[in-house]
Fold these 4 entries.
Entry 1:
Amino acid sequence: MTLLQLEAISYQKQNKMILQVDELSLKRGDHIGIIGPNGAGKSTLLNILAMLEPPTSGTITFDGMKINPNKIPISLRHRTASVFQHSQRFDMTVFQNVALGLKIKGIAKNEREQRVHEWLTRFRIDHLSNEHAYNLSGGEAQRMNLARAFALEPEALFMDEPFSALDAPTKASLMYELKSILRERDITAIFVSHDLLEIEAMSEKLAVIIDGRIIQKGNVRDVLNAPSDIAAPFLHAWNQLKQGLDPGVQ
Amino acid sequence: MELIVSGLSEAFRMIIELDRDIFDITWLTLRVCILATLISMIIGIPLGMLLALKHFIGRRFLIVLAQAGMGLPPVVAGLWVTIFLWRSGPLGSIQWLFTPTAIVIAQVVVSLPIIISLTYAALQRLDPQLKKQLKALGPTRLQYGWFLLREARFGIVAAVMAGLGRVLAEVGAAQMVGGNLLGDTRILTTAMVMEVSRGNFDVAFALSFILMTIAFLITFLLTYFQQRQVIR
């Protein structure tokens, strides 16, 4: 069943066309990666999908409802969550940071506390509960952001390069945790990255975006095995990089 | 040197003996300054938020106006308030000229642009990504404004301190619209100017100590509140 759909979307800034998407559909439980070079329009597409930025034209449908992008119902926002590249820390404790979305949503105090503890434990930062968020390392802060997102029990989770600022061991452990939670809770996840390794690890579906257009989409394996002419150079560069880093490949 | 020593000892005597006139002047000063700052906060913080968070026609002009208003000479503010409250002026019928209310109005005119501009600056400095994250959590407009204010509270307290400082130090406008009438509109700054012109340095010293003590105590309290919030 389709959860989120974009049709004939365009986004212009200062009369310059930034993004044009004919159609993009996400089914419930889909994990889709959006990949493309820097400046291709990945984050703009994610912002439009997350309804954080209205498109210049086009239609967004969420769970069968046509959305007016200039007037997003709060109840609809409460069904989604977003995590961004640079961990966003509010000037409060870790516990309060994770509880913030629940407080905004109007969740009762007891349930709020129970959910915050559950997710702090799940992301292994419960011992930092009373710590000020500004004192956390990059990895801890991103765990806090993911805990804040999952505590909301979203139907769709939007992630904009959530691992790009993390070191390799932190990235690997977080990706593993995230993937298992997404499967366990059947959450639709949209994951933006310019790193094919991250996309392969996190998503079953892939959309390649170049110069503001979705050039190719489909199952990750299918796209990688048969890239289109325009997507091929970008994806090929990644394959070369992977092989070059593998000492077993000559 | 003798002038200073005798002035200082006389000043302490007057403060310790709680001189009636000085008590009245101090009490009036506290009332008008705190009221003017509160009014400036109530009007200025929402206006600063509006300028920082909403885009509308005339916004840039209002930002320039508020920032230019930070340098408004108090005597100019006093002149305009006087003209408006003058018997034959647009608001003459309400007879507020030479009353504490007129001083409050003049002080609001000089402190309001400071609070608007510094609130605007404090909110502008917030990371746009943080605003996006907050928006993604689905707050109502009121919640959105409240949590942003909370994030910018360090700058907002600084805005209030700057506004209060301007009000406490202000003399020209208060003199013009209040008239420095004993027991009615005489406040610490206008009384000091008058006592110095009369050569009563002891009284002027006493008044200056009180004024500095008030300024220090209020600023200390606000700074304590501000720092308590940012201790990690």
Entry 2:
Amino acid sequence: MSLEIVLLSLDVLLWSSFAVAILGAFRWRNLVSSLRIFVLVKITSFSCDLGSKILVAYKITPNHASALYQIIELVLLLWMYYVVFNDKKIKLSFTIVGSVLTAFGIVNWLFIQKSEGNTYTFAIDSFVILITSLYYFYWLGFRKPKQDSQNSNASLFWINSGLVIYLSATLLLLIAAEYIINVLKDDFIIFWTYHNIMGIIANLFFFYGLWIGGRRETIVNPDRKL
Amino acid sequence: MTDNPDTYFVLLFVAGTAVMLLMAVAIVLFVIFHQKKMMKEEVKQQRMELDYQKKMLKAALESQESERKRVAKDLHDDVGMMLMTLRVNLNDQTNNGVLEELRQLVDETHESVRRISWDLMPTTIDNFGLFQSVQEMCDRLSRNGKVQVTYSETGQRQTLDKDQELLLYRIAQESVSNALKHAHALKIEVRFEWIDDSLKLSILDDGVGFDFPTPHAKIDGRHGLGLYNLENRVALLGASLAFEKNDPTGTIVSITTPLSTHEPH
């Protein structure tokens, strides 16, 4: 597998993120608060990926953009799930976990892994988001379905499914990334292409989720206003 | 297979990732089926609650009709008979001015009692059916000359059961009463149209119109009692209710009843 394949998959990933972000932006008015936060995640994702490309063009390591994205993504996703659960008990745990991981992400970026790919942050954050998204399924399973919020629930369901599939498929890769690169001395091309393909699949889930979430003109908003 | 530790790592990595991916897909599928099952149960429960509410409503309306029937019968048989006796006795007395006034008062009271009794439960609905009763109601209202209430029926008449007839009669009565009382209509048309497998009852008036009920008003309970009764009866019929503006003024109330099920819901 050549470098071109990785770059091609990266481009497809970038533009699929763009498509999701644009869809979310166009349907912003029809979306509930939690979905709006997710749109912010995708806008950040696209901006950081684009930033990486610009940094590469200027011969600067693109890892700074992805390290920044990882920190912002964690905060936004925890905020999204907090809005969805709307439970005061969860607020404290989310605040503590979010603060600790954000602090760790910044320290890792500035002092530990620096301009290398911040794989420690990626792995830990992905694990936390995976656990949270699995908890969402658990929460959904014991929740009485409501007709009024059916649309937004279905939308969040598909977004959450995309996150669960993407994170389950890439968590081991992120954990083992250091070993693969530094010990196995692998060029990471196959692994990174696989990661990008999973990202594209996740974006398809996100696109469908936002498509059905913003379909109706009027929607009963079960969440707090953003 | 080679004993290279790198190969073991890659195999372990691929197997671990595949297992995690499969588990993720399995969880998503499980949640989809579980949610669908829950949704089905929820719909089933809602349907049961709705059926129960309809049964309660039907029982309440039946009890109301039975009470009306009893009061109408008492008024007609007892009070009406007593007034008639009084009138006959008065006729036997020597004729003077006071007695004439009394006779007139008794006649008016007797007429009022008959009208109230008829409004409560028209005998024609049992004897001659819905359409004759509605026609009679229109004729009776037009008789005083202040309002013109017309009746029309088009299409091939089909059989309705007694419950449906009574519900439709009450709907027509309530709608005409609303047009007279609230819209101050001078011309009202009660129209029955047999269209394929449905019966459409329309009440058209030239009154001042009214603010059509909105879903919010329904939720807030800001409905008038008349409209509430109208909607309940329409729901029991399994019919649909529509309000439109009449041209140039007034309102058209339309009730479309499906005829495929003869039993009211």
Entry 3:
Amino acid sequence: MTAVDQKQLQEFKQQAEAWFAENTPREVDFMLPLTFMEVGTDQQFEFLRAWQNKVYEAGYLGAHWPKEFGGGGLDRAFQDVATKAMAAERTPIMLNAIGLNWTGPLLLDRGSEEEKKKYIKGILSAEEIWCQGFSEPDHGSDLGNAQTRAVREGDEYVINGSKIWTTQGNYADYMILLARTNPQAESKYKGLSFFLSPMKGQGIETVPIRKLTGEYGFTQTFFDNARIPASCLMGQEGEGWLIAMQTLEYERGARSGQAGGHVMMSADPADILELARHAQINGKPAIEDPAIREELVALMTEARALGLNSRRDKIQPLAQDRPMSLALGSKLASTDFYQRLNAFAIAMQGTRAAYYVGDPQAHDNGVWQRGYLNSFSATIGGGTSQIQRNIIGEHVLGLPKG
Amino acid sequence: MSALINAGLTPSIGLSEEQAQLIDIAQNFCRDKSPIDQVRKLLDDDTGFDPAVWREIAELGWLGIGVPEEFGGIGLGLGELVPIVEQMGRHLMALPFVSTIVAAQAILHAGTSQQQQKYLPALASGTAASLALCEENADWDLENISCTASQTDQGLVLSGRKFLVTDAHQAELFIVSVRYDDKPALVIVPRAALAEGAMSREKIIDDTRRSYALDLNGVCVDADSLMEQAKAAETLAYIELASSLLLAAEMVGGAYNVIDYTLDYLKTRKQFGKLIGSYQSLKHTMVDAHMGYERARSHLYSAAYLFDQQGEGEVAVRMAKAEANEAFSFAADRAIQFHGGFGFTYDCDAQLYRRRAIWCSALHGDARYHRRKLADLML
């Protein structure tokens, strides 16, 4: 890689900032999803698909991905400044999260030329939406035990089984699918294979799951003798676990190569301060209530600790007493924090705490009420907070297993 | 997600090469000099610390780290001392270290050049000092002072009583807050100026420490013992922040070791045929204590990094003190509980940490006090 031309980068940055300032949609008359897991209506889906496409066409998504496959061919520093400009404007999210963040980098790192040519551009332009088929109804956290079957018959695989928590499953064109090709393999892991499976076809059915918010965003996906081309197999049979683990590293941010842009937005302390200024409790602005002020400061202190923890983790002498502590603790710390932040935001609204999305009386159109309910996706998904405490207790503190 | 948090606030943290080295040196030193047997032996000792250890610390140059070179020190910022005090806190050491450091910084801030010449080289090389700030009003506001000083023909005459003067028995000089011309002022009082019986030992909750009440009535010092009065208020504010930073360091250190101490027990003690650390009610609570410790430690090193910056430094220090108070208190409170019947005895070390957590929170503000200050700064 050649050294980055700073002048060129600076110009790109200014262009990106100006572009997002001008093109970010401001007046949207329906609620936009705050995360890629909350796309529940066709209106939301079409809006976000068009927005991602616009950002891509302007050159601010996948700017560092190879040009020959549809990327911008620039250094990663260029995409980083574009991503920052996007976050600063608080633009709507990038829709095709599974494609941009997991499938894309996976294909670029270990896919064949043919696969890259076939899929990368559609991921960036949002013309082809991706979903993930790892979890199964009976095997939530225990991925290695996946039971969905893939049986080779001539030029095809026949798929049978079911996947759950398929984000955007009803909209997806493709799925990264973990399925069992060899039930007799010497270990459960070696019997798994990884597929780039089409989602539109006979024998594939998605059933939307209605979330606690009353909205949609996930599906359960059923394969009933679905036939997919044998060329959908990624790598070799038996490499499924390996490839799935690599995919999870992109998901957890342990590997880089993502296309850029944000796929989630969450409230930050500035938002809750704004709420405290205009919400009334006991006849006064919440921000004048001493107990609320103290709690606000406690939450801002905690928010700052999240950022400080991840920075401290990179300063070796300050992170060596209990190795892995800060890394393994970050999911628990941040997801619990956001849940409490949203709950507290509701609690400072007086009687208006009772309103929900869609009522003119609701503060910030009910974003806090809805955010609180949605926050459970993070304290339950990806290993519940209780499992996280077991992991930290056992792997960081060395306590015995129960 | 984190991008947005960082956009709102710009938390900073860093470590100098000196600090990185000090962590290792201080860790070994404190572990060697203050094993728990030694801590317990000193509980009944009048002095409360080993003078030989104090001399070694002076020889290591730690007392001069924050003192400028012209006065025989090294001239680094106060944040550089955080790793040392943190390690002292881990091993429950009780030296006049923090009081001497803060006294020197006060003289550096508001002392006349004559006072600086006279006292700083001594404080940088092993003369102990203390601060007499607290009064009967129990107020954390250091400007709430009723002791007085007035000029007479004999010199500056003081009146009133001070409390919670740590290590007064070892201090060669005291920084005393008074009202002078009805405004806050700071006076340097040499030990020799105190009358016989002016110091009386206090019964305090932290058995590792020594603290005294100071009777100022009748104390008369040279007229030039007054520090620059125009800087008194600002220096009192500085003393609060400097003390808070170092108390936070001590508490973060204490939290680490009390968690460690409790983990050892949970990994060896069996009940109902199982190691008690395998029960989730204990395991999960230990994780919460540990996460609180990690938060506090991040804030501590951020405060050490930002200490010298106007505004940002104050926010960072108050956050660190508040978080350290809570993390240490929670960890030590649960440590007593999780040791069961043994936890209720004087022989269990958990009580030493818990008592110390109360002491450290009582000085220079508990979590609520600092959050109220932060609310005024941030909201």
Entry 4:
Amino acid sequence: MMSKIEEESFGIYIHIPFCKSKCAYCSFVSDACLSDCKDYVDALIREIRDVGGGRHADTVYIGGGTPSVLKRGELKRIMSAVRENFSLFDNAEISSECNPDSATREFFDECVSSGVNRVSMGLQSANDALLKKIGRIHTFGQFTDSVEAARAAGLENIGADLMLGLPSQTEKDVTDALRAVIERGLKHVSVYGLSVEEGTPLYKSGYEPDEDMCADFYDLCYETLKSAGYHRYEVSNFAIAGKECRHNIKYWTSKPYLGFGVAAHSFYGNTRRENTADRKRYMTGERVEKITELTKADRIEETIMLSLRTDRGLDLTEFENKSGCDLLKSKRSEIDRLKKLGLINIDGKRLRLTEQAYYKMNYVILALL
Amino acid sequence: MDRQQRIRNFCIIAHIDHGKSTLADRLIENTGTVSKRELTSQLLDSMDIERERGITIKLTPVRMFYTKDGAEYTFNLIDTPGHVDFTYEVSRSLAACEGAILIVDSTQGVEAQTLANVYLAVDNNLEVLPVINKIDLPSARPEETRAEIEDVIGLDASAAPMISAKEGLNISDVLDAIVDKLPPPRGDEKQPLKALIFDSVYDNYKGAVCVIRVIDGSVGAGDKIRIMSTGKEYDVVEVGVFNPKSLPVERLSAGDVGYLCASIKNVEETAPGDTITSAANPTAQPCPGYKKVQPVVYCGIYPTDGSKYDDLKEALERLKLNDASLFYEAETSVALGFGFRCGFLGLLHMEIIQERLEREFNLDIITTAPGVNYNVVKTDGEILTVTNPGNLPPVSEIERIEEPYIKADIYTPPEYIGAIMELCTERRGEYINLVYLDKKRVRIEYEIPLNEVVYDFFDGLKSRTRGYASLDYELKGYKSSDLVKLDILLNNEICDALSIIVHRDKAYNRGRGMAEKLKEVIPRQMFEIPIQAAIGGKVIARETVKAMRKDVLAKCYGGDISRKKKLLEKQKEGKKRMRQIGSVEVPSEAFMSVLKLDNK
């Protein structure tokens, strides 16, 4: 394909489009048709086989949907296919998402035997009433059981996802959820502001999270996690040093990744590729839905949009080398204005958001485009 | 039979929704003027905006042929605008007719607006032919409606056609009645030419095309004509009729309705109500009732994107070609840069022009608060005419300010007298008179400052009387008033484009209302923005737009960044609609939103 790209190692994303039930806010491709599970994994394996070609890979991320609802044995089949068709680094980061209601000891045992060395749990909230309200089918108790089960299976690198801006969520709810992950010594916390997507039950209910509430909760998370030793390496992601998710970092630093499964996305060379969201079609081998060749302007926009999300910020020298555009010159007045507003700082050749600007980064991005 | 005996010139009058356009379509179709296939629904309303709003602005007459008892008759159907802004145009097109068809919806009965229209027709000496419509509907009460027409309006309705315009039922009764009941024209072909202009449209090739009714005499290509109000003379290039597209004919004679082209450069020279006569043999008396139409409402129009100034200028030039009542001149604003001060017949006219600029010319525009012409008498005796609040001299130099008043005649059923008087009082109206025209109809007369009327007075009247009241008004003259300039400060800087001239007693409420509204429409920004309303240096209201706290894109799950990009694109588009006013970004719709406050 592209010889230059061959030298780089890929991230691999694998989409498991199954859930026991759909959450009220979810607009991702997933459903409860578990009877298709084996056929779907067969199709996944065919795609992995067709694309793999022995390429180097150093991260794998199994997401969904809910990977933990897979029938036992399927995860192992998927990972075997990955190993057979890619040259997977020994120290590769291999993550799997899971939901507390289905993340049992058996699931984690299969994770470990398949080489999964990082798990991420969809906790969202530690308040059972709130969980129920947003259509989550697990309880806080199940989460604590899952964490113990993962540890017992030998997994150390455990993370959790939390959500902010849920209907009637209180400050105490947020504090409780933070305490739950900190006390259990989880290594990684993702904090996502609820975005109400069209077509979801939540959208139909007319609910709209309050801006000030979300911002207050976010600030609370930042302060609490910081004092507990987690650092923010991306706007929504906090980790104990060294436990940042290497796979996700690829997304924000425009590194190549290959997505497998329905609605999976890939990026390599100058191309973004999107698989069909129709599982039936995917299973018949009609995989690719859309291929976008990026223009120079696209690349510039993406680089600014993605890199500013991270604590690394935008490397101005690298940016100039790649795009031929000296941002300090072309956007001088905007950069001065943003500096005056206290939203960015430039240290050496890196442009970064200030601490207080993370949650308002679109303003900065738009000013720099 | 005499030629004029076989002509009928008429219009259709009706309360809104009673089926005026549908009947017009049916008449056109039944006379075979336009085949059914060609007939787009509601043919007469040709502009998109007209069709959407269900109102008629431009008056396109349609000629039809109808044979009765072996004689072929020519019908000229003249449409009339349906809004108070265009009252003068209505009266001019009525003056071109001998008769009017009055449609009454048999499910609704006679309504107040019907009455107002009938009186307008009667004032213009038209014979009124009542037609009872919508008899196909289950809720139709045709006999009661007939009785109502006789009792309430006092018209003989015993032979009124009972029709369903929608279903095409009994349309021939209407066509027969037009012949039998409506009088033919009675002009004199041998007299010098006298033709009434009741509309004119601009054509790229022909220049101003006058839509005329020949009263006396005749006119044809090659004649030298004179327009009586200006005395200007032209050579006629073409005359014709509307068939319904224009069709040239040799001559138009007394009683005829048609068009006339004479290489006239613009429609300003062919104003509705003016009279065309022969240059060689002029008529002694022009058609009565001509007046020069003056704009009554003014506002600033600016391009949202300052670089589109020339496009806006060109668009206004184009619109002006076809609309003599549109006025504009260049002006500048500290906040908005280069734009135009524009004058209109009324608020609807203003909205139509704005909409056309946006739709037909694809322009993003910002409109400032509508206002009227004020006379400012300065301490040194100098008198200024001010429409733009920004041009008001400093308070210390003002001796007094005078504002225009209108005399309003409001026609209504008696049960709404209270509501109307309340509205008029709120709008600083001075009561003049109340006359019972009959037991179901009252005329309330007020003198009201025009400034108060241009702010959705008409809408207020309609909503408080469930649409029953109608308004007719004329400018009355100027009176001295306690007027002040109300400024809006955004982040402590005056935004001149938001300043208005307002009566002192109303300034507080207006200021508070504007500040509240602006708080709603101005998005949160990187810093807190105080919004203040002030008179002179004195702040009378304050609101605050809190600083923005959250403006971040959702996570990019599984490496899908397409959603993010889309959102970012959307934000980029939104940013384009923002206008930088000092340090504050103001969406262009903010300027319009503060105008719509007075619904209370």
